[in-house]
Specification:
heterodimer, A: 2 domains, 16 strands, B: mainly alpha, MetI-like fold, 2 domains, 72% helix
Amino acid sequence: MRLNILLLLTYLSLSFSAKAQEIIEIDYWQYAYKERISAIDKLITMFEAENPNIKVNHTTFAYAQYRTKVAAAVSAGEGPDIVQLFYGWLDDYLAGGILQPLSQQEFPTAEIDELYFPMVQNMKVDGEYYALPTAVRSLALFWNKKLFREAGLDPEKPPKTLDELLDHAKKLTKRDRAGNIIQVGMTLSPTGQDHNWWREVLTRQYGGKPYSNDGAKVLYDDQAGLDAFKFYSGLSTDHNVTVVDFMDKSEAAFRAGRAALHIDGSFLLGTFNRGGRRPLRLEWGVTELPRHNGIKSNYASYWVNGITTKAAGAKKQAAEKFLKFITSEEAMQLWLDEVGELPARKAVAMQDSNKNHSTYGAFIRGLDYAVSTKFYSEAGQRQTVVDMLDRVVLTGMSAKESLAIAAREDQAIIDKALNK
Amino acid sequence: MSNNKGLTVGQKRAIWAWLFLVIPIVYFIIVRFYPTFDAFSMSFTDWNIIGERNYIGFDNYVTLFNDPVFWVVLGNTFEYLLFGIPISLLLSFTIAYYLDQIKFGHGLLRACYFVPFLTTAVAMAWVWRWFYQPVPIGIFNLALGELGILQMDFLRSTTQALPAVLMPAIWAGLGFQIIIFLAGIRSIPDSYYEAAKIDGAGDRQILWEITLPQLRATITFIVITSSIGFLRIFDQVYNMTQEGEGGPLNATRPLVIHIYKSAFEDFEMGMAAAQTVVLFTILMVITLLQLKVMKKDG
C-alpha cells in the first residue's frame, strides 16, 4: 500500500516537473512611455533569466487609448494576465470584475501594510490587496536658479512657506511695457498637477480637509477651502504674478526659462534634465512643497500592477511570481534610476542616498506626509477645479460662489459613481 | 459551364458587377450600417464597456435633455455651423471667382489654397493654438503688441475662443471648396456669357443672373458637405483647447467632443450612443432640408 502511494507520488511529481519544463507565457500590459518600457524590458530579462520556464510578453499602448483598450480587451476575454492601472481606476476594475485578489501566501496583507507607504492601502479592499505599485509619485516645487539670481534672490534658497512663495513670485514676475506678463513668477495650471496641490495641500494647510475619510463627501466648501482657493486664484487675480496655462503648458514655460517657480511631479525630472547646452541649459533646483501655518502636506499618486481574472492555474502562479519580482526592492531601485519614479517600499525610498538625493530627495521626503485622493473620475474631478478657476479668472465670479459650484459638481460626480 | 447557358450577356454583366460590389457592400454593412443600428439600441442601455448591457428605456435621453451642459454644447455646435457656412462659402466663392479670371500664376495660387486641405488637422490645430497664445510666444498678440494694441485673450476667452477655433477649420476646408467652385464655374458653357455680352449685360448682372444660378448644384453640394463637416467638428477643438475639453468653461465644446468624452473618458457608452443618435438626427434633418430647398428653387 505504502509503496503504491510512494509510486503514485513519484509519478505525480515527475509529471508535474515535466509540465513545469513547458514554457508558460504571461502577458503584461502597460501604457507606452519610453523610460517605463525600457525599465520593464530590463526587469523582464532579469526575471526570465531567473525563471527560464516563464516567458513574459510585454505590450504597450499609447496612454490616450490605454484605458479603453484594456477595458475592451478584458471584457472580450483577450486581456493580459498582469495589467498596470492607475490607482484611481481600482473601483472601476473591481466593479468590472477585471482583477482578482493577490494570494495571502505570496502577498501577506500585514506585510504589505508594514513595508509600503501608507497610501498604498487604498489598494486594499476587505483586507485583501488587489494590486501593488512598483513606484509612487509625489509633488515638489521646482525653481529656476538663474531667474532667482537675476531678481536678486539667493539662488540656493527656495521659498519654504506660502508667504515666501508669494513674495518671491512677485519679485520674479516680469512684464513688458504694455503690462503684459512675459515671465511668470509662479505657474498656475490646474490641468497639470495644480489641482492636486489645491485639493490635498492648500485646503489642509488652511485648516480644512478636501473630502470625508471615505472620500464620499466633499468638505472643501467651507471657510478653510475658501481661504485656500483665494490664495490659489489670487496668484492671478489679486497679485498678478501668473497667467493661467502660461505658454500653453506650464512645464514648457518652466523648461523655457519663462517661469521661476513651478509645482509638478517627479516624472518631470527627466524632461528638465534632458538636453540643452549652456546657455540654454536650465539651472534648476527642486525642494519640498512650501508649508503654511506649520502644516506640511503632499499628494501622491501611483500606478499599480494587478492580476486579472483571466490568469488561472500555472499562469496565475507565474503572474504572481512576476508581480513579486517587479515589486521587489531591487526592481524599485532600478525603476527609480531608470524612470525617476519613487520606490513604493519605505525601506528603499528612505535609504540615505535616496532620501538626500539632490533631485529625488525632495519628492521622497514628501512621501512621508503625502495623501492620495480617492478619485471617482480623475478627469471629471480635475475639470471641476479647472472650471472653478476659470469662472473666477475669466468671468470675474466671486471665489465663494465659484467654490460652491465646484463643490456641487464634484459631489455630483462622486454620487453618480457611488450609485452605480 | 452549362449553368451559364441560359444567361444573356446583359445578365452575365450584371452578375459580375454584383460580384465586384459585394466586397464594398459587405464592408459597409459590417463597418458602417451594423454599428449605426447598434448605436440606436445601445442608446437605450446603461452599458459602460465592461459590464452587461441593461435596458433602461429613455433614461439616457431624459438625463441628456435635463443637462444644461448638453444645451450649451448643442448651441456651440450650431454656432460652428451658422458662422462657418456663410463665411467659408463667401470666401471660397470669391477666391474661386477671381482665380478663374487670372492666367498668370493660376496653378501656383490654386495649389497654395489647396495645401491646407492636405495638411493634417492635428498639426494645423497645434500651430494655430500657438498663434493664439498671449505674449511672449503668440504671433497674433506679438503683432498686436507691435501695433500698440492691447493683447487679446483668444483661446482663453469665453467669447473669442469659438471663433478662434473655427478659423483654422474654415481655412482647412477652403481649398476643397475653391476647387469645386472652380470646376463649377468652368463647366458653365461659354455661349451663355457670349450671349449675355451681346445683349449688353454688365459683370454684376452676369454674376447674379448666370454664374450663381448655374452654380446651384455646386453650392448645394458644398453647403451639404461643409454643414456635415462643421456639425462634426472635432480635431480643431480637441487639439486647440486644454486637455481637449472644449473649454474654457465649455465655450468651444461641440457635440462630437461631448460624445467622445462620454464614451472614452467616462465610459458611458449608452449615454454617448444617445448623443450620437441626436447628432445623427440633426445631420439627417439638415441634409434633407437642404436638398429639398435647393430642389424647389431649381
